[in-house]
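Chapter summary example.
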Amino acid sequence: QVQLVESGGDFVEPGGSLRLSCATSGFTFSANTISWYRQAPGKQRELVALHSHTGGTYVKDSVKGRFSISRDNAKNTVNLQMSSLEPEDTAMYYCNVFVDGSNYWGQGTQVTVSS
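The structure predicted for these 115 residues follows.
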């Protein structure tokens, strides 16, 4: 079955960096677009970045220049590199894939940015 496992979340001070990873299994990784979403307390889940199976990428405007997304088709993983973190980046970060008509989510990894 499709599985997505996020890791790398942590508590960091403003200006810090983190690298989130999403390990996947159960589907043809190289043929699917993988996305990172985040949800802050009291807010809706929002798309942060995605990496298309064709190589195209998208990064939300508010994090452009600070966040980047990459994928490793050999390891079936997608990484979200985050730098110059701000308190507004505090959220649960989720990995997502849409496969065969169904939407799949990981359990999330918590990122907290605070001094």
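To summarize the output: The chain has a mean pLDDT of 96.
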